[in-house]
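Support request from a user on the community tier.

User writes: "When I paste my structure tokens into the form, the page sometimes reloads and wipes my input. The last time it worked, I copied everything first. Here is what I submitted, just in case something in the input itself triggers the reload:"
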């Protein structure tokens, strides 16, 4: 028979251990959330002139005082495309931003490319994962109308990943946007976030998945957002503009069935919606299918801008 003193000691020790583990897991969730809203910055040294295009540096101040840094590439056209990068990326991204700038400018679209808040060279310590970024892009359009009216006559947007989600939310709120290309947009940031964690190796992957609901909670708190506002499916019935969606069958962050569900919901009230599904990964269509990508994206913007 176990001595009562020993039994009490075991119970207290076990309770303390459980509390310690719980505190460590909470601490892990808070640390993960803090890292998520403060992404690493991608700043490189190439510029549009390296591609053979004249450009201007530009700065736009958001409604809450954050200075956004960008490039204006005028091509003498009345059609302008705003390019939006993904989470942790920037206007310097060489995988998809650099090639799409080259494609658009070579086909004589004016190009506008800015770093989101807390990305690249822009100010801001915290990303809101797309929520406030929508209003930031609206501010960029305001700036164009006030300072470069010749570039604001007919505006389209192409966005990648988080930028794709921003482009869709933007279209639902701003009729100045005439057409949207959304490449690998997250449809539900919660499910995409879980898939992002699954990219990691164990044991970190397993630990983060075990506290994922806490990570979502603390991320929402730190970014001052409601993640339900980042479920893009909820914006489908408000998007009236032509939309071209690009999706990869091998995308490990955005499930094809989510894209297809969003596409079907869009088509219920908007007949000018196209979906191109290719055998590639996240935001990789421009690299794996460059000729078709250029033909489809350029053709889409020429039709609708």
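"...and here is what came back when it finally went through:"
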């Amino acid at each position: 028979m176990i001595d009562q003193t020993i039994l009490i000691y075991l119970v207290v020790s076990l309770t303390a251990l459980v509390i310690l583990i719980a505190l460590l897991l909470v601490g892990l969730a808070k640390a993960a959330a803090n890292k998520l809203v403060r992404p690493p910055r991608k700043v490189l040294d190439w510029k549009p002139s390296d591609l053979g295009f004249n450009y201007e540096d530009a700065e736009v101040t958001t409604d809450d005082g954050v200075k956004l840094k960008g490039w204006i590439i005028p091509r003498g056209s009345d059609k302008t495309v705003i390019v939006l990068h993904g989470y942790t990326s920037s206007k310097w991204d060489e995988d998809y931003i650099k090639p799409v700038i080259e494609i658009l400018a070579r086909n004589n679209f004016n190009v506008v490319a800015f770093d989101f808040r807390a990305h690249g060279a822009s100010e801001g310590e915290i990303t809101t994962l797309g929520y406030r970024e929508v209003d930031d892009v609206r501010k960029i359009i305001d700036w164009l109308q006030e300072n470069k009216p010749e570039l604001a006559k007919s505006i389209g947007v192409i966005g990648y990943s988080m930028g794709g989600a921003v482009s869709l939310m933007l279209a639902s709120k701003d009729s100045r946007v005439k057409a949207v290309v959304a490449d690998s947009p997250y449809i539900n940031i919660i499910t995409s976030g879980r898939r992002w964690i699954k990219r990691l190796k164990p044991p970190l992957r397993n630990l983060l998945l075990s506290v994922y609901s806490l990570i979502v909670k603390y991320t929402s708190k730190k970014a001052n957002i409601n993640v339900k506002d980042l479920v893009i499916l909820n914006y489908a019935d408000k998007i009236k503009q032509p939309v071209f969606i690009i999706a990869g069958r091998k995308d490990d962050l955005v499930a094809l069935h989510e894209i297809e569900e969003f596409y079907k919901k869009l088509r219920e009230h908007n007949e000018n919606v196209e979906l191109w599904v290719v055998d590639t990964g996240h935001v990789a269509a421009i690299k794996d299918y460059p000729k078709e990508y250029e033909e489809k994206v350029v053709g889409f913007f020429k039709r609708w801008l």
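Agent notes: The reload is a front-end session timeout and is unrelated to the input. Residues 1-36+203-227 form one domain. The chain has a mean pLDDT of 94. Escalated to web team.
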